[in-house]
Every structure is written in structure tokens, then in C-alpha cells.
Backbone:
């Protein structure tokens, strides 16, 4: 397995097997035919990892496709991220992401973000015009003009102009009269417990 202290890749690179680095900055194109592990990963180009990605800090302003799981303490996505299961501490997304499930402590979905998959976190906050499939948390705030299929939380706040197909809550649902909600149901316990 190649181990690098720091790498700046602005051209094309292909690694057969796993790749480990302290810091990896990618402005070009990289393909890893195994796992990718680094303290810091910054991708402004295009990355493809057949295995898993593990980092303390992951920043994607380009495109990253992962065949396995993604694990990062801090994650900032303003480009495109595709993966299976994503686990993180704090996440900020302002791009287009697709995964089976994202689990985190705190998730902020910036304006015009598109999330395909399930988000499970203690706190989830969406800004304006966010599109999301499923949001599960202790506190879930759905921003103006956002569209979400399912929201489940202890406390759910839905702002004016938001469109939510179904809300399930255990304690409180604060729904602005200018929001569109298909169905709101009080439940005994959350189906997905935030970590």
C-alpha cells in the first residue's frame, strides 16, 4: 500500500490497491482501486474510490464517487458525493449527494442542496430550496421552499413555503401555516435513533 506524507495531484493518477496519506489535495483525476485513508482530503477535481474512504477532514468541491463507505469527523461537500453509508461528526452540504444513509451529529444543508438518501443526526438544519428524501433527528428544521419526503424527529420545525409529504414527531411539530404538509403524526418513539 502506498503511503504518502502529502500529495498534490493536478493530473491523472491511478492506484492499484489501497492509498494512505497524511494530506491529499486533488485538482485532477484520481482512481483508487482499494481504500483511501488520509488525515485531510481535498477534492476539487474528480475522484473514484472502489473501497472505503476514511479521513479526519473531507472537503469535496469537485466530484467523489465511493464504492464503499465514507467516514470523516468533519465533512464539507459543495460538489458531488456518491457513496453507500456515510458517517461523520459535523457535515455541511451545498451540493448534490447520494448515499444509502448519512449518520452524523450535526448536518447543515445549504441553499439549493439535493440529498438522495436517508439523513440521521442529532440536529439537521436545511436552508432554502433544499430537496431531500428522508431526515431523522432530535431536532429537524426544514427551511423555506424546501421539499422533503419524510421528516421524523423529537422536535420538527417547518418554515413557510416548505413542502413535506410526511412528518412524524415525538414531542413537538411547529409548522408554519404557509407550509404544505401532507400528513403530520405524533408517534411514541423514533424509528431511527440519532447517534
Residues:
Amino acid at each position: 500500500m502506498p503511503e504518502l506524507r502529502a500529495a498534490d495531484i493536478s493530473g491523472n493518477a491511478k492506484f492499484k490497491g489501497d492509498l494512505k496519506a497524511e494530506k491529499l489535495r486533488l485538482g485532477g483525476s484520481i482512481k483508487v482501486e482499494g481504500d483511501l485513508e488520509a488525515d485531510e482530503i481535498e477534492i476539487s477535481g474528480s475522484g473514484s474510490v472502489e473501497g472505503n474512504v476514511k479521513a479526519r477532514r473531507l472537503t469535496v468541491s469537485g466530484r467523489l464517487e465511493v464504492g464503499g463507505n465514507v467516514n470523516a469527523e468533519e465533512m464539507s461537500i459543495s460538489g458531488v458525493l456518491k457513496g453507500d453509508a456515510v458517517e461523520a461528526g459535523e457535515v455541511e452540504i451545498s451540493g448534490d449527494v447520494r448515499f444509502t444513509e448519512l449518520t452524523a451529529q450535526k448536518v447543515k444543508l445549504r441553499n439549493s442542496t439535493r440529498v438522495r438518501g436517508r439523513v440521521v443526526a442529532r440536529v439537521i438544519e436545511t436552508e432554502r430550496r433544499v430537496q431531500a428524501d428522508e431526515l431523522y433527528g432530535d431536532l429537524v428544521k426544514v427551511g423555506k421552499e424546501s421539499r422533503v419526503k419524510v421528516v421524523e424527529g423529537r422536535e420538527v420545525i417547518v418554515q413557510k413555503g416548505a413542502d413535506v409529504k410526511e412528518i412524524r414527531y415525538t414531542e413537538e411539530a411547529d409548522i408554519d401555516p404557509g407550509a404544505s404538509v401532507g400528513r403530520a403524526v405524533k408517534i411514541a418513539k423514533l424509528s431511527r435513533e440519532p447517534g
The chain has a mean pLDDT of 94. The two ends are 33 Å apart (CA to CA). The first strand starts at residue 3 and ends at 9. The CA atoms of residues 125 and 141 lie 5 Å apart.
